[in-house]
Amino acid sequence: MTLLNVYIFIYNEFTLFEVVLASYLINTKFQVKTLGIEKGSVCSFEGLSVFVEYSLDMINANNIGALIIPGGNPGNILNNTRLHNLIRDLNNQNKVIASICSGTLHLIDSGILDNRHYVYDTTEVGPLTSSYITHDGVVVDNNVITSTANSYIDFSITLANKIGVFVDESDYQETVNFFKYGKKS
To answer: How many domains does the chain have?
Structure first.
């Protein structure tokens, strides 16, 4: 799989810790860029300012290899038609779309999770009725990866593996051992 760029969609009160490891791993092979509603600074849930390099108006699905949507306060960007259109366009092109925690709400709202298995913490928005919701930490269904917040290490490694970061099984296993189990090779 050839990736042009990997974008992390960030917004005010997004949860930075959920995507830091993913960014670190992906950046070893591909370019990681930030995307948002508008270009400029946003404040993470942890209180850190992060710069949005590209607004939704500046890019299109053809230039994106993968999209990551972290959790946080999804109310700040709910019902955003431009974001939902981008998600649908990426899905139609079979590009990797990865969301964690409440970031998955945007995949649900865009309609791409209809008839797909995914994980979502239903306590955040009330009960969702889909029979496709699982209680696993990370779920991969074709080109879509979803995760709970506390599975951010598995999410990061799964995403990096899906987009081809690791050179071989040994590289993958070394990463798992280091980040999950604290073992040096």
So the answer is: 1
Residue 172: what residue type?
A: Y
- Find the domain containing 88 and state its range: 6-181
DSSP 174: H
Alpha helix positions (H), 46-168: 81-92, 104-110, 152-162
DSSP for the chain?
---S-EEEE--TTB-THHHHHHHHHHTTTS-EEEEESSSEEEE-TTS-EEEE-EEGGG--GGG-SEEEE--B-GGGTTT-HHHHHHHHHHHHTT-EEEEEGGGHHHHHHHTTTTTS-EE--TTTTS----TTEE-SSEEEETTEEEE-GGGHHHHHHHHHHHTT--SSHHHHHHHHHHHHH----
pLDDT in tens, 45-75: 999 999 999 999 999 999 999 999 999 998 8
Domain assignment of residue 136, yes or no: yes
Residue 1 domain flag: no
- The answer to whether the pTM exceeds 0.90 is yes
